[in-house]
């Protein structure tokens, strides 16, 4: 006698159906990202890091399928914004665009920090670099970096260098030049690159360390002499201007930079997805050209490369700051 299968009880059948319908929804809820991503930018609207974020936002959104919401949190050299990221939920839905200051320099500048970069933040990718240019006032009569090195060594402490403010990358780039070339110059802080350049053009200072954007259009003019770029090699935007390393300071390299970080303990799968989306966006030809038009170089990379870069930059600038005695209260 054959057994006939007994029908499932109605309640069991409904339960199985509900489980089957819920499975795709559970998988969808576990997918990343599951809601808009907040991108904390540590400078005000209109600054370089803000512009980078807004150029990348639509391209990253297209890859991740969620909006990227810019949240400007300036102040304390980037510490306020980075602290907000460090204390956010580690789920990948809060990210930060941090500059060299907040991620590598400030621990050596400030007497105390609200977060620890290595402990509280997870590197995602380096985003971009900003080369600096050393310019000379026309009244100085110097046209090359070797000319400047000779003049500065002949008159220790006599030449003045405008820069974008104490503790900024421009200021520290000047200190690095002093230390590597055996110079002694007098720094003159301004509130940003543009007024520093204006001071050199007007002859209020002998020199200025400024960002690439500030000097666009000045090459070949008699307003200032472009003595050298701070990158390891010449850059496409100023092909006629040598690097410091090429022109008499071997091994010199200094750039302003911005990187993407998440809170520590963000799931590795989320970090990997974010790295893939942002680096792909940075490699798009239109992204590269738009950034280069404003003096910014796209620099995508792996999370491991960025972590190593932060460690190297932290050690490098700690030594420069210690030797220069620079502090920010």
Automatic annotation (TrEMBL):
Please name one Pfam family that this protein belongs to: TctC
The record's listing under SUPFAM superfamilies reads: Periplasmic binding protein-like II
Q: Does the record's keyword annotation contain Signal?
A: yes
Instruction: List UniProt keywords, sorted A-Z.
Output: Signal
> Could you say which residues form the signal peptide?
1-28
Q: Which CDD domains match?
A: PBP2_Bug27
Family membership noted in the UniProt record: Belongs to the UPF0065 (bug) family.
The UniProt entry, under PANTHER family, shows: BLR1237 PROTEIN (PTHR42928:SF5), TRICARBOXYLATE-BINDING PROTEIN (PTHR42928)
Protein name, UniProt field? Tripartite tricarboxylate transporter substrate binding protein
Q: Which organism is it from?
A: Muricoccus nepalensis
């Amino acid at each position: 006698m054959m057994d006939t299968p007994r029908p499932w009880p109605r309640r069991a059948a409904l339960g199985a159906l509900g489980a089957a319908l819920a499975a795709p929804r559970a998988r969808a809820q576990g997918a990343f990202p599951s809601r808009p991503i907040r991108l904390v930018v540590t400078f005000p609207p209109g600054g370089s890091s803000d512009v980078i974020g807004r150029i990348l936002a639509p391209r990253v959104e297209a890859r991740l399928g969620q909006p990227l919401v810019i949240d400007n949190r300036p102040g304390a050299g980037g510490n306020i914004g980075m602290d907000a990221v460090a204390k956010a939920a580690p789920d990948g839905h809060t990210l930060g665009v941090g500059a060299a200051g907040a991620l590598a320099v400030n621990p050596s500048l400030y007497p105390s920090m609200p977060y620890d970069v290595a402990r509280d933040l997870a590197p995602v990718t380096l985003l971009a670099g900003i080369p600096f240019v050393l310019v000379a006032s026309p009244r100085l009569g110097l046209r090359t970096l070797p000319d400047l090195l000779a003049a500065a060594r002949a008159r220790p402490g006599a030449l003045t260098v405008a820069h974008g403010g104490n503790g900024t990358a421009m200021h520290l780039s000047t200190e690095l030049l002093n230390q590597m070339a055996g110079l002694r110059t007098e720094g003159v802080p301004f509130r940003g690159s543009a007024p520093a350049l204006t001071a050199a053009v007007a002859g209020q200072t002998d020199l200025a360390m400024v960002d690439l954007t500030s000097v666009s259009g000045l090459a070949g003019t008699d307003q200032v002499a472009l003595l050298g770029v701070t990158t390891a090699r010449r850059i496409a935007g100023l092909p006629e201007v040598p690097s410091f390393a090429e022109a008499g300071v071997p091994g010199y390299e200094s750039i302003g930079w911005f990187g993407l970080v998440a809170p520590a303990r963000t799931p590795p799968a989320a970090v990997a997805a974010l790295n893939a989306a942002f680096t792909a966006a940075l490699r798009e030809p239109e992204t590269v050209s738009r950034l280069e038009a404003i003096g910014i170089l796209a620099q995508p990379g792996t999370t491991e490369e960025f972590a190593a870069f932060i460690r190297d930059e932290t050690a490098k600038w700690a030594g420069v700051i210690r030797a220069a005695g620079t502090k920010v209260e």
